[in-house]
Amino acid sequence: xxxxxxxxxxxxxxxxxxxxxxxxxxxxxxxxxxxxxxxxxxxxxxxxxxxxxxxxxxxxxxxxxxxxxxxxxxxxxxxxxxxxxxxxxxxxxxxxxxxxxxxxxxxxxxxxxxxxxxxxxxxxxxxxxxxxxxxxxxxxxxxxxxxxxxxxxxxxxxxxxxxxxxxxxxxxxxxxxxxxxxxxxxxxxxxxxxxxxxxxxxxxxxxxxxxxxxxxxxxxxxxxxxxxxxxxxxxxx
Length: 237
What we know:
Layout: E1 4-10, H1 14-20, H2 23-30, E2 34-40, E3 53-54, E4 64-65, H3 67-77, E5 82-93, H4 96-102, E6 107-112, H5 120-125, E7 129-132, H6 142-153, H7 164-168, E8 186-187, E9 190-191, H8 201-219, H9 221-236
Parallel strand pairs: 1-2, 1-6, 5-6, 5-7
Antiparallel strand pairs: 3-4, 8-9
Helix pairs in contact: 4-6, 8-9
């Protein structure tokens, strides 16, 4: 039995079919650690045209996904353990901590928006959480859902081949990751830092930590403040 089941409701399931069969996600589904199912929203639309969208009341550009097909989809797929997530630009930001929290759920139902979004009654009545993957607009939410699936899956036990990868990644402890190098040690005159070739593991860890802090200061001052606040809180306790 899989640790987590994810149902993705979208108008464009073909957009992510290849993604779900490749690399880490593909291996996890083959091992039955994850179960990911794609659903075309039109499965819950009425014949003969199977329309799922209409113009917004009050006028305005674009179309909205109608409530009826979405309600039917959630009523069909949902269980008492389900958490319904809508991918949208005005949701809460996706963070590593949020992805980790969601990885503890048993069943996620992801709604991929399109056009100008979905009817507000869906958001108010059956959506548990709204998530944005960044301050930009995509043509639809299917790719955003794929990003969420990937981010969440990494925290599920046995999905990653080496669990240590999680502790070294960017955003762990609110720090970006450190610079990394592989062979050759000298490439076109560019030399790997000597400390990494020293074999002194304690010195290497200290160098990496220093690099993490410096890189985060330069690139993400918002994160370094969180890191410093956490460090100060820990030292005061």
